[in-house]
Amino acid sequence: MVVDRKVAALLHSVPGSDVSPPTGFRLLGTVEAYAAGHRIDLGYPRQRLVLAVLLADAGRLVTTEALIDRVWGQSPPEKARRSLYTYIARIRACLAGMEPAVELLRRSGGYLLRVEPELVDLHRFHRLVRASDEATTLAEQERLLARALALWQGEPLTGHDGDWVNVTRTAWQQHCLSAEIRWAQLALLAGRPEEAADRLTLLADRYPLSEPLAGSLMRALVAAGRGAEALAHYASMRTRLAEELGAEPGPELRELHLDILRAGDRDDGDVYRSTPATLPPDVAGFIGRRTELAWLDGLVSGTAERHAAVVVVAVSGCAGVGKTALAVHWAHAAADRFPDGQLYVDLRGFDPGGQALGPATAVRQFLDVLGVSPARIPADLDGQVGLYRSVLRRRRVLIVADNARDAAQVRPLLPAGPGSMVLVTSRNELPGLVAADGAYPLALDVLGAEEATRMLTRRLGEHRLAAEPDAAAEIIARCGRLPLALAIAAARAATQPRRSLATLAAELRDSGGALAALRTYNDPYTDVRTVFSWSYEALRPAAARLFRLLGLAPGPQVCTAAAASLAALPAESAAASLAELTSANLLVESAPGRYSLHNLLAAYARDLAIRTDNERDRHAATVRLLDYYLHSADAADRLLSPARDPILLPLTLPAPGTVPDRPADVPEAMRWFAAEYTAVLAAQALAATTNLDTYAWQLGWTVFTYLWRRGHITDLAHAWRTAAGAADRLADPSAAAHAQCEAGAAETWLARYDVAESHLRRALDLHTQAADQVGQARTHLAMSILDEQRERIEDALNHGREALALFRAAGHQRGSAQALNSTGWLYGLLGDHAQGLAHCREAVSLLGEVGDPYCEAVAWDSVGYIHHQLGEYDHAADCYDYALGLMRRLGSQYDEALILEHLGDTRLASGALPAARAAWVESVEILTTLEHHGAADVRTKLAAI
C-alpha cells in the first residue's frame, strides 16, 4: 500500500500511534474522530453512524439507498432522505480543515468518502494483517499482528444497533479472531506455548463455539504440556455444541482430539507430522489477491456441512492471470490445516506440446508419493482410483490439480472421504465440475492498480520506481495489470538495471505493441503470445473467428448485439461463441450480455486478425460494427429528442449482417446510452482514424442529446471536435459549421471561453457563407450563452435578438421558442421583468405546441426566475418544481442542478432556510459529480446560511 507522506509522518509521530493517531477515525470501539490530537464532536448518534458507514467503505461509492438502509433499517421514516442530506452537510462541516484532507463527495447515485485508509483504524488493521501475511520472518509477522490487534479498543461501533451494524460487527470480530489465532500460532512457533494458551483461553470465553479457536487452543495446551486441559476443553466444547446447536464438532476438531488421545506421552512433533508435501516452492514476493485468499480461508474454516464431503475449488482465469501462483501460495499458507499432507500435480491441460497428463498417470504419481507399494497398485484406472480413494479415506489432505483442461481430467483425483480439499486451476471455467461435483468456482481477474504497483515495486525496488513514476505507471497500464505480463516486464528491467524504465515503456508502446516486447527468447511459458495461443487453438472455428474480430472493436466492452454485428452472425450463434470464449477465459462477461477483452488479449486478437483475415473482411467487420452503434444510437436519440432537427448527413441503410438495437421508449433509450455511450465515442474515434469520416460525424450527432442531459460536457466537446475534423476532411461546410457551433457551446460550459469563441466565430462564418439562416441563428444563440457566462449581458441580449429574428425569418418554431426563452431570461437578468415574462410565457406556449419537454422545462425555469425577481416566491417555486419534474424524467442532471440552485434561492428569499439548504445541497452534489465549476458558487451560498 502506498501511503501519503504526511499520513505516514502523523502515524509515526508519537509512540503507540496505531492506538491513538493524532488525526484519524476510530470504528473498532466507539465511533470517534480526531484532528491534531483533539477529539471532534461528531454530533448525534445517527449522524455518527452515517459517518461510520462511509468510513467502512472509504474510497468506494455508497449509494443513497444503501446509506438509508444501513442507518435506518428496512423501514426508514418518510423524512430519512432529507435527514440524510442534513447529516451529510454536518459531517462535511466536521471534516473541514482536517489535515490530511478528508473529502465527502457526492457521486452519481450516492456518496464517496475520500480519506487515506491509514487514517481509519479498521483499514489500518486490515493493512497490518496483510503486511503480516507478506512478511518474510516469523518475528516480523508477529510484530505486525500485535500492532493490528492493539487497534481494537472494545466492541466495534459501540453504542449503535441495527441489522447492518450487527452483521458488520460480527464480520469484523471474526477478522479479529482470525488475527488472534494467527498471532497465537506464531507465538507457538516461536516457543512460547504458555503465552499462546493464556491468550487463547481468554478468547475462548468470548467465542465459545468457534472451532478454529478451539483447535488452536488445544494445540497450544498440548505444546505447553497441558494435554489434560486440551482434552477437557474438547469435552466442554462438544457439550456446548450439542446443547446450543444440536451438532457435533467438525471433522478437523474430532481428528485433532483423536491425535491427542493416540499421542499419549509421545513427543509433540510426532503428533503434528504433515507428509507427504509435494507442493512446488511458494511464489517469491507474492502480491495481492487478498479477497480470494480470504475466501479460500473461509471455505476451510466454514461450516460442518461443507466438510461432510471433499471441498473442491475451480480457479479459472485467462492465461497469465496468476492462477497457479494463487493456488500454490494459498496451499503453502494453509498447509498446517491439512496435517496428512499436500499433493501437487501439473495436469498440463494447455501444454504447448499438446500432451496433457492422463488421469491414470496422475493417480499413479499420487499413489507413489503416498507410499503405496507398486505391487499393490492395480493395472487399470478404475482400480487405481479405488485404491487411491481408500488410502485417503481417513486422511485430511490438500490436493492442487494445476492446469486442468476439463472436468474429466480432474474427477479421478477427487478423494471420497470428508475433510480434504482439492484446488483445481484451469483456463476454462469447468462448469461440469461445478454442476456435477459441487465445486466452488473462483474466477480470477487482473490485479488491481495498487497490487500491480506493489508487484513491480517488490521486483524492482522502491527507489527505481520512485525515480521514474510515470514510466512505471505506463508499464503497468500497458501490461494491463496482468501478472504474467508484469513479471516478464519486471524481469527484463531487473536483468538490465542500467536501462531506464522509460526505455522499457517505450518498447511496450512502440516496438510492435506489448505482445512483441513482453516475451523472453528461450521459454515458451513466458511468451505472452505463446501462452495465449494455447487457449485460442482449442477454440471451434466460429468462436476463433469472433475472437479475432473482437480485436478490431475499439470500446472497453461489447454487447451481444455488437458482437453479432461485428461477425455478421445471428444473435444466437454469437451468444454461443461468446459463451465458448468466456468459458475459455479469453473473454470476461463483465455484466449480463456485456463482454470485455483484456488489453493484452485484445492485442493478441488484433494481431491474429491481421495475420489470418484479409483486409476486405476486416474492413467489412469494422463497417458492420460502426453501423450497429450508429443506427442503435440514432434510434435511441430520436426517442430522447423527437423534436430535434433531422441529421444533416442522412444515414444509409446498415450493412448486411448488422443487428441494431431499437429501444422501445425513453427509459430504455437512456439505459442503452448509459451502457453504450463510451463504446459509441470509441467507435467515433475509430471511424475518424480509418477514413470513415461520415460515421465520425454522424456518431457525434447521435450521442449529443444523451451526453448533454447527463452532463458529460468534456466528452461532448471532444465528440464535436472529432466531428468537426471529420467534416473538414469530407469538405462539407454545413456539417463543419454545425460541429463547430456545438463544440463552441460545449467549451462555453467548460468555461474555456476563448476556445469557445474561436469555434463559434468559425461556425458563424461558415453558416453566413452558406446563407443558412437556421445555422446562423443557432450560432447566435450559442454566442448569447457565451456572453452571458462572461457577464456581458447586453451583448448576450443582442445575440439573442438576432437569433430570434433569424429563426422567425426561417419559420423555425422550435428555434424561435428557444430564442424567446433565452431573450426573456436575459431581460429578467437586466431587470426588465415585464419583457422577460412575456417572452418566456410565449416560449412555453410555443414549446407546448412543438412537443419539446426539455426546452419547455428550461422555459419554465426562466418563468420561475422572473417571478422570483418580482417577489412572487410561491409562483416561482411552483414553476421550478414543474421544471424539475420534467428534467428528472428526462435525466438531464446539469439542468436539474441549475433548477435546484434557483429553487434554493427562492426558498431562502421566502424565509424557508431548511428547504433552501436542502435544494442547494442536492445541487452542489450533482455539480460536484459532474465536476462542474458552478459547484463552487453553490457552496458559497451554503456557507453563508
Outline the structure in words.
With 945 residues, this protein is mainly alpha-helical. The protein folds into 7 domains: 1-186, Arc Repressor Mutant, subunit A (Orthogonal Bundle), CATH 1.10.10; 191-266, Alpha Horseshoe (Serine Threonine Protein Phosphatase 5, Tetratricopeptide repeat), CATH 1.25.40; 290-443, 3-Layer(aba) Sandwich (Rossmann fold), CATH 3.40.50.300; 449-528; 539-613, Arc Repressor Mutant, subunit A (Orthogonal Bundle), CATH 1.10.10.10; 624-833, Tetratricopeptide repeat domain (Serine Threonine Protein Phosphatase 5, Tetratricopeptide repeat, Alpha Horseshoe); 853-943, Tetratricopeptide repeat domain (Serine Threonine Protein Phosphatase 5, Tetratricopeptide repeat). Helix 9 (211-223) runs parallel beside helix 11 (251-263), helix 31 crosses helix 34 (713-730) and helix 39 runs antiparallel to helix 40 (833-850).
CATH top level label of the largest domain? Mainly Alpha
Strand order of the largest sheet: 8-9-10-7-11
Any idea what the CATH superfamily of the largest domain is called? Tetratricopeptide repeat domain
How many discrete structural domains?
A: 7
Identify low-pLDDT runs. 1-20, 264-274
Radius of gyration: 33 Å
From the spread of the alpha carbons, the general shape counts as globular
| Beta-strand residue percentage | 5-15%
